[in-house]
Amino acid sequence: MYFSLKLLGAGNSGSDRRGKRLTQLSDIDESQWQKVSLERAHHQIRTVKVVDHRIALRGYEGEVREIILTDHGRARPAFLITNDFDLDVKEILKRYSRRWLVEQEIAEQVDFFHLNQPSSSLVIKVDFDLTLSLLAHNLYRAFARQLSGFEKCTAGTLYRNFIENGATVSIQNKKITVAMKKKTHLPTLFALPCFKRDISLPWMDASIHFTSTTVS
């Protein structure tokens, strides 16, 4: 079994060489659409509309199964192509959604962490850059899970809302005070347990205390 995915405009223009053999949305009768309920994280349900039928592709012997998906949270419909005619359409969508999440994670790593542009051409250094990039990405994901309402945000959004900020640092009697500048989402950050108490630095015999300033 194999899958292919295309996100096309409603017209599915014939100028798109890869997509001109796919079904035109304007040719689909309203009665062909069926509603499918998919379970998401935290037992949430999303209802999507699909058309599940067979088509012929140039250069491929026989027919393939084309599944057109709308109401899936994106502006443009998704076209899934598979040669598995036995699997239930709901199961196919579940399997592809997991692959889609992997693709989104990779896209985020390339976009925000520049995973495709390592700082060195040396193989050992490239491996080190890759390891640090993946570690940073996982730290952002762990950070997001602690922030109420921001669990699904990308690393870029988390950086802009929480990490990108200035602060005044003062040290007195082995106590380091970090006074962070006011930001819209700073109260969410200070609601975390680690910001409600001093953080011990035993190797320095010191502690860090976070607070916010009155200057934006």
Task: Report on this structure.
This protein has helices at 89-113, 123-146, 155-163, 186-190; strands at 3-7, 34-39, 45-56, 63-70, 78-82, 167-172, 175-180, 199-201, 206-212. The chain is elongated and about 80 Å long. The N and C termini lie far apart (56 Å). With 216 residues, it is an alpha+beta fold.
Terminal residue distance: 56 Å
Secondary-structure element order, N to C: EEEEEHHHEEHEE
Helix content: 25-40%
According to DSSP, the number of beta strands is 9
General form: elongated
Output the keywords:
single chain; 216 residues; alpha+beta; 3 domains; 5-stranded antiparallel beta sheet; 4-stranded mixed beta sheet; 4 helices; elongated; disordered N terminus
Short description:
By secondary structure, this protein is an alpha+beta fold.
Q: Could you give the topology of this structure?
A:
Layout: E1 3-7, E2 34-39, E3 45-56, E4 63-70, E5 78-82, H1 89-113, H2 123-146, H3 155-163, E6 167-172, E7 175-180, H4 186-190, E8 199-201, E9 206-212
Parallel strand pairs: 7-9
Antiparallel strand pairs: 1-5, 2-3, 3-4, 4-5, 6-7, 8-9
